[in-house]
Design brief:
The complex is a heterodimer.
Chain A lengths: L1 E10 L2 E11 L4 E5 L6 H8 L7 E6 L2 E2 L4 H7 E4 L11 H11 L4 H14 L15 H13 L5 E5 L7 H14 L4 E6 L2 H7 L2 E6 L2 E6 L1 H9 L1 E9 L2 H9 L4 E9 L2 E9 L5 H11 L2 E8 L3 H10 L2
Parallel strand pairs in A: 3-8, 3-9, 6-7, 7-8
Antiparallel strand pairs in A: 1-2, 1-4, 4-5, 9-10, 11-13, 11-14, 12-13
Helix pairs in contact in A: 3-4, 4-5, 8-11
Chain B lengths: L1 H16 L1 H36 L8 H25 L1 H9 L1 H5 L6 H26 L1 H5 L5 H28 L3 H17 L9 H10 L6 H4 L5 H28 L1
Helix pairs in contact in B: 1-6, 2-3, 2-6, 3-8, 3-9, 4-8, 6-8, 6-12, 8-9, 8-12
């Protein structure tokens, strides 16, 4: 449905997006994850035909975003970082206007607008002036605007920003529901959001794709390596050698500080090696000062990935 | 066409829900009425004086024509001030609010967005001039003035306004600050207004060119009731250039981001 091939975007010589490639299949929800300034918004703007790429091609439903921009625009719903709202309009008239410029025929418009209002839970504010709504409502009006034309592809730039926890939950389940009939790309820098809503994740940093997998796969990469932190009274090299010999140990980083070595032991997922490690160390006659399981959260992996350079 | 209409309607609504429309309309009508009254009073005083001096034998003067000509010259100045207010928000406001991102990612083309907005500002100008025309009704109640030269004057005013609106629309695509848009539009308008000052010190072809550029020199014939195609062409070309520049500016916005 969405094919991005070697897309780059440069501003005055500085590459904001650098050779990004990914694909999204029909009905997938792709999470676009990265720290602020990683190039998420720029990539989305290229996909929505708001700005052209410096290099590379992107296609949506088989149409090139540059060559056939009008065809692409007919097929997308886009929620920019700041919801594009006209504060002087009412929710109803605003959604009607958006439906109109998205080419929804007048006889279908009422149903489409009603549908979007219902999905985004805007029923009780539909006659209110947008400028007087709270941030959470504005964000939902922005979301309603994106889905009002019933587009094949939804591109949502940080859809849950500015919402309270209950609304975040609502919007996430809404997006999940949308994923059944639409193809969705959403950007975020909130990790749990990705594991909760997305079927696939692209992690981007400094304009480059650093990882691409399903949330489970990433979690595997992250949690797949359980860590145990050890502090032992023994030379680092000896500790490393003995521990690496244990079945289930993937890697050992050991550091020596005077008499004491601090090790970080990576173990295979699900193999709780704490007892075995403890016994081994005692058997060797070393003093065991500390032994602690370190679980790697999604956050750790994310930070790991984006700080690797 | 469909999209142009949608944009036009939204712009019209937004004119009338914001105070801009009412302020511009009120100020225009107040000044228009004031100068109409002033010019009329002046003529009346003049005729009374003439009659007192020479009796009925004095030269008859065409009161409505005189009043309209004076009034229209003033109106062109009033419009120079007010038109930038009508165009300042057209694109700068969209840029500031980020709604430009909506417009440019929906199937609305740049051209359609531009035309919708331009036609909305033009419609507002027509409303303004029509309201002004209604103010002139006393002339028709108390006499039978010739309406054709008046119509010519209003046509000239409309063309002159259409040209300035296109200029304002272009400036509005350049900035996201409405104040900046107003000041630049007004400055450019005033420059094109006063450019004929330089004509007096120039000679030959330069002088003709400068005189031709002056946005006001083409208005005088209309005010006198003469419809000359060369003036119509001048204003239409002016408007076209403005719209073309605005279009290019919108296109380039996509590249700059």
């Amino acid at each position: 449905m969405i094919e991005v091939e070697h897309v780059s975007k440069a501003y005055g010589g500085r590459k904001v997006v650098d050779d990004i490639s990914f694909r999204v299949k029909k009905g997938e929800i792709l999470g676009f994850l990265g720290p602020n300034g990683a190039g998420k918004t720029t990539t989305m703007r290229i996909l929505t035909c708001y700005m052209p790429a410096t290099e590379g091609t992107a296609r949506i439903a088989g149409h090139d975003v540059f060559e056939e921009s009008l065809e692409v625009r007919r097929r997308i719903g886009y929620l920019p970082e700041n919801p594009p709202l006209y504060p002087e309009m009412t929710v109803d008239s605003y959604l009607n206007f958006v439906a109109r410029i998205k080419g929804v025929r007048s006889n279908a418009r009422k149903a489409r607008v009603g549908d979007a209002i219902e999905k985004c839970n805007l029923g009780d504010v539909r006659r209110r002036i947008i400028g007087r709504l709270s941030k959470g409502y504005k964000q939902r009006v922005g979301l309603a605007q994106a889905i009002v034309g019933n587009p094949e592809v939804l591109i949502l730039d940080e859809p849950t920003i500015g919402l309270d926890p209950r609304q975040i939950h609502e919007v996430r389940s809404l997006i999940k529901g949308l994923g059944e009939a639409h193809t969705v790309i959403l950007s975020t820098h909130i990790l749990p959001e990705v594991s909760m809503t997305c079927s696939r994740v692209v992690i981007i940093n400094n304009g480059k794709v650093v990882a691409q997998d399903t949330p489970e796969g990433l979690a595997h990469q992250m949690k797949g390596a359980e860590r145990i932190s050890l502090t032992v009274e023994a030379p680092a090299a000896a500790v490393r050698e003995k521990i690496l010999a244990i079945d289930g140990v993937l890697d050992v980083h050991a550091e020596e500080k005077g008499e004491v070595s601090t090790c970080s032991v990576e173990c295979r997922l699900g193999s709780d090696l704490r007892r075995i490690l403890a016994r081994q160390i005692v058997d060797e006659g070393w003093g065991l000062l500390e032994l602690r399981a370190v679980s790697m959260s999604l956050e750790d992996v994310f930070i790991n990935l984006i700080t690797q350079e | 066409m469909h999209n142009i209409l949608a944009i036009w309607q939204r712009e019209m609504k937004s004119y009338f829900v914001s105070p801009i429309a009412y302020v511009v309309l009120t100020v225009f009508l107040f000044l228009f009425g004031l100068f109409f009254f002033g010019n009329l009073a002046e003529v009346v005083q003049y005729t009374t004086m003439m009659q007192a001096q020479f009796g009925q034998s004095g030269q008859p003067i065409d009161v409505p024509a005189y009043v309209i000509q004076q009034l229209m010259r003033t109106t062109s100045l009033i419009l120079l001030f007010l038109i930038p207010m009508l165009t300042m928000g057209l694109f700068s406001e969209e840029k500031k609010r980020g709604t430009i991102e909506l417009l440019l990612t929906t199937p609305v083309g740049n051209f359609q967005a531009l035309m919708g907005k331009y036609l909305a500002s033009l419609t507002f100008l027509v409303i303004l001039l029509a309201a002004g025309a209604v103010t002139l009704s006393p002339l028709f109640i108390y006499g039978q003035p010739d309406w054709k030269p008046m119509l010519a004057a209003f046509l000239g005013m409309l063309l002159y306004g259409a040209a300035l609106l296109a200029l304002g629309l272009f400036v509005s695509t350049l900035t996201e600050n409405q104040i900046v848009a107003v000041v630049i539009t007004f400055g450019l308008g005033l420059m094109l207004w006063l450019v004929s000052v330089f004509a007096s010190s120039a000679t030959g072809a330069t002088r003709d060119v400068i005189n031709y550029l002056s946005v006001i020199s083409h208005l005088d014939d209309f005010i006198k009731g003469v419809i000359d195609t060369s003036h119509i062409i001048y204003y239409l070309t002016f408007a076209f250039v403005g719209l073309f520049l605005a279009y290019r500016s919108l296109e380039s916005m996509r590249w700059k981001g």
